[in-house]
Amino acid sequence: xxKILRYxxxxxxxxIASYGLFTEDFTFGSxxxxxxxxxxxxxxxEEFKKGHxxxxxxxxxxxxxxxxxxxxxxxxS
Length: 77
Description:
By secondary structure, the chain is mainly alpha-helical. It is flat, with a radius of gyration of 13 Å.
């Protein structure tokens, strides 16, 4: 289940990033960062399931940072 979520969130992130790159319209940047944050969360949970607590904590910390950046982006735009 986590692997499927990781692929879905990664795909959405890549699609939004590609759209912004090709059209030079970066209005969906906050959404891209939000889905990247969700990808990091799922990857962190996968690492915890594998028993790699150090990498899991790092990925959860990256998730928190990206989540707050995306929320700030939503509030400022």
